[in-house]
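Hey L., structure's done. Input below.
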Amino acid sequence: MGPSFFIVPIVEGHGEVQAVPILLQRLPADMVPDARLHLNPALRVKAGSFVNDGDYFRKYVELAARKAKARTNACVLILLDCEDQCPGELGPGLLEKARTCRSDVVFIVILACREYETWFLAAARSLRGICGLPEDLEPPGNCAAIRNAKGWLSNQMRLPYVGVVQHFGHFAHRTGGLAHKPSG
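Output:
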């Protein structure tokens, strides 16, 4: 029997609450085939408050840390959109703040440039033919510069893009996921 891991995700949107388990469940199968992954239900936060309000940040980091600390091989995953902030600046700052709150817990900070769906744009070639996307789909020029990645996806699909879960769920079960399918 392989290793067992426990993750407590902190996310910002309703779609991410539903999508992050799908994404995370794919990773061990791709990276460590015999690993078992256990997920706490995602804790949903208001991103602006989480980033800018110290008390709000500590409240959710502490809650997640308590859940993680109760398990073996556990961590807290902070997964947020950056919107117009620089992930290279915001990410290390959030990681340091989390570690200052709870130095006894492992934290991982993953920030989507602009929005979660930007990852779908970057992985456009791996999404070809899925959920109404064209078989010859190409990623846009500078994915990180695009505002409204959801709109870009909708414009490419036969039916409007309605959410991460519906489309990503189908994709994750048919492929190895986004993390290992770069568009370049």
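The two ends are 36 Å apart (CA to CA). The beta strands are 4-11, 36-39, 43-44, 74-81, 106-112.

-- N.
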